[in-house]
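Researcher: First entry.
Model:
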Amino acid sequence: MSEKQQKEVKIEIQVDDEIAQGVYANLAVVNHNDAEFTLDFIFVQPQAPRAKVRSRVITSPKHIKRLLMALEDNLKKYEDQFGTIDVGSADTGPQAGKYH
């Protein structure tokens, strides 16, 4: 059966109330091994010596690549609508790699 002949599968996605509230993160740390990627989303408070992981997502290399493509597509749409995001300004919060 070719891709064009396959039936389209529709998935109903449910979100629990607690998950739907989301969590705020201003730092992400990404690690990987040969089988999976781990994304830690962290909230760093200004002037605080410690930070806490708010959420951890563990996923496969194929899913991380799809996520990257989706993020790139959405970021392009965002910047087309609202303008370029400046990541070089001083008020952008913690920088990757400076979380020790």
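Researcher: Second entry.
Model:
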Amino acid sequence: MSFTEILYSSKNHVATIVLNRPEKLNAWTATMEAEVRQAVLRAAGDDDIRMIVLTGAGRGFCAGADMSLLSGLAAKPQSEPPRIDGAEQAVGVGRAEFHRKYAWLLSVPKPVLAAINGHAVGLGFVIPLYCDLRVAAASARFNVIFSRRGLVAEYGMAWLLPRIVGLAHATDLMLTSRTIDAAEAARIGLVTRLFPDENFPEAVQGWAEEIATSLSPRSLRAIKRQIWNAQLQTFAEAYDSSLEAMSASLVSEDFQEGVRHHVENRAPRFSGR
């Protein structure tokens, strides 16, 4: 499988997808979108892969939609809003509500980590929201930007961002379209870890490998499903489904190994089953 606008590699149970248009700060195109989806599907279907990392080449993570695409939309008189096909085929498990454009990342049955190496703007701000974990380089910058382009909070951001950073911070970021640095992003919970610019890819790889090798892949799949399904469940539904999931985990191979490696005081050898 060959790609033109991304790079794909895997090492020690971690698949890394790199947005690879550094001369354009990895501005998003239809080709890039299709290739990212293909790469994620490839990683999701590979039993050796337990973590998926999405990052950017060069100075930027993603500068948003390529301006040539936006210019094309602006140049065409619109008698009605352009129709965007948001439906996406599910790639894993989860509620049907998440089987939409970009939200389909929530149905991927493996944790997806956004490693934000530089500027994350517009659509480049939205996509990491649909990843399960977000880390950033110390020099990274973030901007919703939509109100500066005459646009709106796209692709469910008004639902998702407040759940990540809280309503007050989300309102501030979406209404003002101001740029924030990595330190503020960490303070408000937009990212959970900061790594130095120097050796950022290596630091991210090391942390991803730690998750992939020391934790149960089966547990990671199940907990990801619980987290995102619970956003649309009542407390009672989330509680009851957790009991069902716990019953299933108690007869799994990973539970047996989880107990065994602790008793034997050794590194785990989880099978993911």
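Model: Note on the second entry: Strands lie at 6-11, 14-19, 51-56, 60-62, 112-116, 119-121, 133-137, 141-143, 180-181, 193-195.
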